[in-house]
Amino acid sequence: MQRPLLMVLPRFGVATTSRISVLNRPCRTRPPTFLASRAFSLWPSKPTPPAQASELLSDAAVSSDPTPPWTDASIPAAPEKLSDVVEAAVNTLPTETLIPPLQLGDLAAQGLCGMHPAGIYRMCLEYVNVTTGLPWFWTIVATGVAARLISVPFLVRSSQKQAIMQQYHTRLQPLQAASMKAAMAKDTVTAMRLNEEIKAIRSVAGVSQMQLLQGPLVQGVMGIGSFLGIRGMAELPVLQLTQSGVDWLPNLAAVPPSWFSAIFAGMIFVQTRLALLEQPPDMQGRRFLEFIGYGMPLLTVPSMAWFDIPAGCVVSMIAFSAVHIVQSMIVLIPAVRRVLGLNPRGKPLAELSPPVRRRQQSQ
C-alpha cells in the first residue's frame, strides 16, 4: 500500500510530497536526519510552519473538475477566404508597422511574372514601384495611364480606318445584307461573289479587317492583362498591396467600398455617352450602345461585391476610363477631327461619301 507523505525541507523552506512504498507496516518513516540538519546550509532560512505547508499543498493539488476551460463559443470561426485572413492580420498590426518594399525580381520569385499579358503587366508594376518609389495606389494609377496611352496611337489608327469605311457605307450596306441573306439561304455561289465585291471596295479604300481591329485588340489585351495581373497579386497575396499609401483606400487587396465602385460606374456612363456623341446618328448598333451606357453602371456596384473584385483592379480600371474619357473629349473637337482625318461629328452615314479619287477608282 502506498500513502502520500509530506516532507518539509527546512533547508529550502518548501513542502513537498512523495510516495514511499512500505510493505506490511504502517507508514511512519521519518525523513533522514541530514535533511533536517542546518549544518550544510549556506543560506539560513526559517523552517516552514505546518500551517503554511498545508496551504502550499492545497494550492499545488490538481483540480478534479473535468470541465475544460474553453467552450465552443470561445473558439473563433474559421475564415472562408484567404483575403479575410490577410485583412484581419493587417488590421491587427500597429500603424507604425511597415511591410518591406518590393525589390526587382520579387514577383518573378513568387511565380507571378511570365511572357503573358498578366505576367508582363506585373513586371511593369514592379518596375514602376521600385524605380519611382510611389505608393502602390499611385503605382497602379501611373502604370494604368501609361498602358492606356500606349494604346492611343492604335486606337486613332483604327478610328481613321473606320472613318474611311463609313464613307463607303451606302455601297457596303446593301452588299453585306445580301451576302448574309445568301449565306442563310445556303447560296454559296452568290455569297462568294458578294464577298469578293466587298473585298474589292475595301481594297480601293485601303482598309483591311486587321486595321479596323488593331486598336480594340491592343486595348483589350492591356485591359485583360491589368485586371488578371492585379487580381493575381491580390489573391496570392502580395502583402505590399495591403498598404496602398492613401488613407481613404488603405487595402488594395480587399473589396473596395461601394462609393468607390460607384465612381467607376459613373465613369462608364460618361464614357459611353461620349462614344455616342462620336458616332453617326444612323449607325447600326446605336441602341445597343445606349443600353450599355445605362445598364452597365447599374450592374457595376453589385458586381464588384459579388465577384470579390479587389480594389487594385478598380483603381486600374478607373485609370483606363479616365484616359479614355480625356481622349474622347479631345477627339470631339472639330479641329482635331480635321487634323486626324475623321468624319465630321453628328453627320449621318447617308451623307458621307469617299473622296473623288477613291470614288472613281471604286467605280
Descriptive notes:
By secondary structure, the chain is mainly alpha-helical. The chain contains 15 helices and 2 strands. It has helices at about 35, 50-60, 80-90, 105-110, 115-130, 135-150, 150-165, 170-185, 190-205, 210-235, 260-280, 285-305, 310-330, 335-340, 355-360; strands at about 1-10, 15-20. It has a two-stranded antiparallel sheet with strand order 1-2. A hairpin with a 4-residue loop joins strand 1 (about 1-10) and strand 2. It is elongated and about 75 Å long. Residues about 1-30, about 35-40 and about 60-65 have low confidence and may be disordered.
Compact overview of the structure:
The chain is built from 15 helices and two strands.
Beta content: under 5%
Q: How is the biggest beta sheet arranged?
A: 2 strands, antiparallel
Q: Mean pLDDT across all residues, rounded?
A: 78
Share of helical residues: 55-70%
Q: What's the total count of β strands? A: 2
Spatial order of strands in the largest sheet: 1-2
The secondary-structure class comes to mainly alpha
Spans where pLDDT lies below 50 across 5 or more residues: 1-29, 33-41, 60-64
Radius of gyration from the alpha-carbon trace, in angstroms:
39 Å
Helices and strands, in order, run as EEHHHHHHHHHHHHHHH
